[in-house]
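hey so i finally got around to running both of the ones u sent me last week. sorry it took forever, my laptop kept dying halfway thru and i had to restart like 3 times lol. anyway pasting them below in the order u listed, first the sequence line then the structure token line for each. didnt double check formatting much so if smth looks off just lmk and ill redo it

first one:
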Amino acid sequence: AMQKAIAERDFATFAALTMQDSNQFHAVCLDTYPPISYMNDTSRSIAALVHAFNAAVGRAAAAYTYDAGPNAVIYALESDMRDLVELFAYCFPRAEDTAPDAFYPNPLGLFESPASVGRQVSAPKVAELAHAAGRSPAGCVRRIIHTSVGDGPRVLPASQSLLDAAGLPRAASE
């Protein structure tokens, strides 16, 4: 089903499957004995905010999953990215001692400057959601990393590998 969603560029199905798989993984972790909990309060707030964002815009506009820990990975279409970054930066403000360009480097030029990110939310429905959701303590999200889809995996020559012939990490001097 995931391969079909990707091949057909069906973001709504991709989003649902991604979030369901993430939720199922975390449910299994909680069902072990003793239970394992990778998500923290901020992780759960992020998942709830993604669902609220999707409800506010009336469609599947974003999806979440998590790394092997509490760090969220959010997928969204390019057309929704500005609203989503504004929402997250507003609801999860940067710590005072974190430079704006360290919190959100703005790699795709969505904003005039990194310092403007999180100050306001432009889209009316998203702004309403931001104010309803409120703000989490500054610094509970350390940075927003924004990337775009690349051209996929590729085989590198051995000279560029981070591993040696035995599969072990190369020394820094190699």
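and the second one:
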Amino acid sequence: QAFFCLLLLCIPWGSSCPPSCQCTERAGAKAVLCSSQHLQEIPRDIPRDVVLLKLDANSITRIPSNAFRHLPRLQEIDLSRNAIEHIDRAAFRGVAAGLRSLDLSGNRIRSIPKEALLALGAKLRLANNPWHCGCALQELLGEARLDPGSVRDITCHTAPRHEYVGKPLLQALDSGANFCSVPRRSTDVAMLLTMFGWFAMLAAYVICYVRHNRERSRGHREHPRALPGTRGRAE
């Protein structure tokens, strides 16, 4: 990839180019290089036929829906070393089929909607982010096409259990952690508590009903006994 970028830098690109970016071309492969330009958002005037887009080392905080949809030939995106915190579900809509490489390492990402990445065939780099190790990240690790060299650097910044905080996600999973079981356990506990509450209410109702019937029966038994004495006094 570094050699490919070096080749692209050799030939200037004569067509329109975003401000603060350098556009180059080599053998028909066009690149837009916007590294370290203090950008706070993805440029909107990127040429449609770009193949490589480098936006690393900027101050981008969010990838909105359809951010690259107008770039049908895009194959590589480098968004490493930004300040990205939010990625919309449809952030990569329109480029999923052709994208080969997506670098999101070194940002501020805690979680990503899995719908945003699972449709991609690109090799993903997600290391060095403050990840929350939950079910979504575990499923992403199992289903997405991650760069093997960066998987070990996906570390749990937060987790449902304190013992996993600061550990690589792979190490936590190898030790038997299953973050996808936590919500189910919570749901099971809630259902058990609800059922116990209903049974307690039903038991209380039955007890009150039985006591009430006993008191009524006792009253009926005592009332006839009083009648003979009443008749004797009348005579």
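quick thing i noticed on the 2nd:
The CA atoms of residues 124 and 146 lie 5 Å apart.
anyway thats it, ttyl
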